[in-house]
Design a protein that fits this description.
Layout lengths: L5 H13 L6 H10 L4 H7 L6 H40 L18 H14 L4 E2 L5 E3 H4 L26 E3 L4 H10 L4 E10 L11 E11 L4 H16 L4 E9 L2 E10 L5 E10 L1 H6 L7 E8 H9 L12 H4 L3
Length: about 325
C-alpha cells in the first residue's frame, strides 16, 4: 500500500507557519492540514480498504502525524503571540518607571539594615535572637510585665485591641517575646527580640502607629546594673562610634527597677535619648517561675529612632513612603 510522505507534509507545514502574518491564520492552517479536505482526511478514508493489521498500523501513524501537526501549530501560534506583545510593549507601552537598561539589583531597606546591624552587635557578645507573634494577649503584653490595670498604656487611646474584651491586642513592645521565651526556657537567658510593634499614635516627625523595636534581656546569677551599663555602652560605641559619650538618667518603667534612659551626646553638644533600660523587676521573674537566685536586666530601643539619628533623617514618614530618591541613599 502506498503511504503518504509524512516528512514532506511536516516540512510543508513549517514553511506555511513561517509565512503567517496574522494571528487568525493559524485556524486556517489547522483546517488546511487536519480538516475534512486535508490530505490526512483523505488518508483516513482509505483505512476501510485495509486489512485489520494494516488498518491498525496505518491508523496509529495517521494519529501521530495529526498530533504532531496540531502541536507544531499551537507552538508556533504561542510564539507568534509572545513576539507580538513583546513588540507592543517595547514600541507602544513602555513603562517609564522601570529602568530597562541597567541591572542594578536590589538592597535591603534602611530599617532592615539598621535592625541587622543592631542584632549583629549584640550577637557578637553572645546574645541570641528570639521572635514572637505580633497579635498578643494582654497578659503577655501587660500583666506579666508588671503593668497594672490602671496604667495609661492599657487605655484604648494608647493600645490597638483586636477584641471587645481587651484581651488580645497588637503588641505595643517586643517585651512580650521576652516573657514567652522565659516561659519556655530555663535561665541563663541572653536574647534580643527585634520586630514590628503597634501603638495608637498620631503620625508626626518622630512617631508612627507602626514602628520597629529591638528589646534585649539578660537573666543570670549575680548580674548587676554595672553589667547593664557596660553592655549598652558597648552597643552605643559600636553603633555610633568610639568617641560617642553616654549618660544614664533615672526613669520609670513598670517592668524594671531601677530604670533609666540612655542619652548620647550629639555633635552640637545636645544630649539625645535613644533607649530605655533597667534591672528586671522581681515580679516579672515570679510570673515566669524563675527562682530568686536569678536576676537580670532589659532594654528596648526604637530602630527608626536609631536610623534617624545616625543618618540625620528629619521625618519618620520617609521610611514608609517608598520614595526611591530617599531609599537609594542607603
Amino acid at each position: 500500500m502506498a503511504e503518504l510522505n509524512f516528512d514532506k507534509v511536516l516540512a510543508s507545514l513549517k514553511l506555511r507557519l513561517n509565512e503567517i502574518v496574522d494571528e487568525a491564520e493559524f485556524d486556517d492552517v489547522l483546517k488546511e492540514y487536519t480538516g475534512k479536505d486535508s490530505l490526512l482526511s483523505v488518508e483516513r478514508k482509505k483505512l476501510s480498504t485495509l486489512s485489520k493489521d494494516d488498518k491498525k498500523t496505518y491508523g496509529e501513524k495517521l494519529n501521530n502525524v495529526n498530533n504532531s501537526i496540531t502541536s507544531n501549530i499551537k507552538k508556533a501560534e504561542q510564539e507568534f503571540i509572545n513576539k507580538k506583545y513583546t513588540s507592543l510593549e517595547n514600541e507602544e507601552n513602555e513603562d517609564i518607571t522601570i529602568d530597562w537598561i541597567t541591572r542594578s539589583g536590589t538592597h535591603r531597606h534602611v530599617i532592615s539594615q539598621v535592625m541587622d546591624e543592631v542584632v549583629e552587635i549584640f550577637a557578637s557578645i553572645g546574645y541570641k535572637v528570639a521572635f514572637g507573634p505580633e497579635v498578643e494577649t494582654s497578659w503577655h503584653n501587660f500583666d506579666a510585665l508588671n503593668t497594672p490595670d490602671w496604667h495609661p498604656a492599657r487605655y484604648e487611646s494608647d493600645t490597638l485591641y483586636t477584641d471587645h474584651n481587651l484581651e488580645t491586642l497588637l503588641r505595643t513592645q517586643t517585651s512580650t517575646v521576652q516573657i514567652r521565651h522565659m516561659e519556655n526556657n530555663d535561665p541563663p537567658v541572653y536574647i534580643v527580640a527585634p520586630g514590628r510593634v503597634f501603638r495608637s499614635d498620631q503620625l508626626d516627625a518622630t512617631h508612627s502607629p507602626v514602628f520597629h523595636q529591638l528589646e534585649g534581656l539578660a537573666i543570670d546569677k549575680n548580674l548587676k546594673f554595672t553589667d547593664l551599663k557596660g553592655t549598652l555602652e558597648y552597643f552605643v560605641k559600636q553603633f555610633f562610634g568610639e568617641n560617642i559619650e553616654t549618660k544614664f538618667i533615672p526613669h520609670f518603667f513598670p517592668f524594671t527597677e531601677p530604670s533609666a534612659e540612655v542619652l548620647v551626646k550629639w555633635n552640637n553638644g545636645e544630649w539625645l535619648e535613644i533607649l530605655g533600660c533597667g534591672m528586671v523587676d522581681p515580679n516579672v521573674l515570679d510570673h515566669v517561675g524563675y527562682s530568686k537566685e536569678y536576676q537580670g536586666f532589659a532594654w528596648g530601643v526604637g530602630i527608626e529612632r536609631l536610623a534617624m539619628l545616625k543618618y540625620q533623617i528629619d521625618h519618620i514618614k520617609n521610611f514608609y513612603e517608598n520614595d526611591l530618591r530617599f531609599l537609594e541613599q542607603f
